[in-house]
Amino acid sequence: MFHISNMCQQLLDYSNNLHTAIFHTNWYETSLTTQKLILNIMLRSSKPFLFSISGFYDGTLNSFLSILRKSVSYFMVIISMK
């Protein structure tokens, strides 16, 4: 589960940096057609790319840590009942 969350987090980080990376290229030196294509890519990359695992779990490290904390908490409750 950690590996899946880690890969999803890396993809999220890459997608967040894509907009800035495209902006810092020499897009203004390209043809007008290419500039329009780059603008379209920048608009689409401005939204974060999120994975949804099983429809209720976002594939980020924060979500993984939240599930891990809850699991440990439930485990400690079960242990304390014995």
Automatic annotation (TrEMBL):
<dbReference type="GO" id="GO:0004984">
    <property type="term" value="F:olfactory receptor activity"/>
</dbReference>
<dbReference type="GO" id="GO:0007165">
    <property type="term" value="P:signal transduction"/>
</dbReference>
<dbReference type="GO" id="GO:0005549">
    <property type="term" value="F:odorant binding"/>
</dbReference>
<dbReference type="Pfam" id="PF02949">
    <property type="entry name" value="7tm_6"/>
</dbReference>
<dbReference type="InterPro" id="IPR004117">
    <property type="entry name" value="7tm6_olfct_rcpt"/>
</dbReference>
<keyword id="KW-0716">Sensory transduction</keyword>
<keyword id="KW-0552">Olfaction</keyword>
<dbReference type="GO" id="GO:0005886">
    <property type="term" value="C:plasma membrane"/>
</dbReference>
<keyword id="KW-0807">Transducer</keyword>
<keyword id="KW-1003">Cell membrane</keyword>
<keyword id="KW-0472">Membrane</keyword>
<keyword id="KW-0812">Transmembrane</keyword>
<protein>
    <submittedName>
        <fullName>Odorant receptor 69a</fullName>
    </submittedName>
</protein>
<keyword id="KW-0675">Receptor</keyword>
<keyword id="KW-1133">Transmembrane helix</keyword>
